[in-house]
Amino acid sequence: MAEIDDFSEVRNLLRILQNPFVKQNKVAENRNDPRKLWRLIRELDGVNVKENFTWRLNDGDKLVSDKYQIVEMFNSYFIELPKSIFTELINITGDYISPEKRVHSQLEIPHITPEQVNDFLDQIPVNKSTGPDGVGIRLLKLAAPVISESLSRIINSCIITGKFPTKWKEASVTPIYKGKGCKSEASNYRPISVLSVLSKVFEKHIASSLRAHLKENALLYGLQSGFRKSFSTETALIRLLDQLLFNLDENCVSGLVLVDYKKAFDLIDHNILIKKLFFIWSTWPVAGIVQKLSF
Questions:
Q1: CA 214 – CA 210 distance, rounded (Å)
Q2: pTM of the full structure
Q3: Record's InterPro entries (predicted)?
């Protein structure tokens, strides 16, 4: 019996070890497609991506299975969570921009052209999820030659008036399980919002102008790696490793302070953000658009 048990253990071990080798070609094939790559990783990790799941959520001392109640419970939790976090924070007042960072050149968002609308639509992946308006990216790409001029007029009108369409701020929100903890607890889920694809065209145009303005006036911290073109976690690690090796050669002691913020994006104070943006540019239409985006 012991030999049989040993044989079964070895056989199971070989099956586990065999799986990554069988699928290593797929890893290479999908290295540039994050969606497929993460799906493959979950498969290798033994997670059934098509697992059937019956929604149940804790409401005090009872489990709720009614889908409409569950939707309202998630909605309340996701809305109230940032508010509860902010109540625990210290109220910060004062000047948020150092004098040397203030610029006198105004950021002006240029009018978008039909050609730019086409280019921005081309940049959006075809597997982009459809927002609450039901207009998918595949349809928009096909209709781009016909609708690009009308869409450019709508966006240019928003730029002139400093307004952002309310309908483009509506989102379809899906709670996604974080992968750990009880599945019946709302706190173990994070919200994923899917906006209208049309709003992405406007946002890309604003972001393009803002990035150029920040770079031209050197408003970004030189060592910032996040959310910058040609920068990533890899460049940050290379910079860190280089500094550690340099200190080692100079017989210097290196110290690291690593901070992991809980609910980092929920902790962004929109009032402080808006004040910073007003220092960066003083034109009302631009600031007005960003303010409409933030609230």
A1: 6
A2: 0.69
A3: DNA/RNA_pol_sf, RT_dom
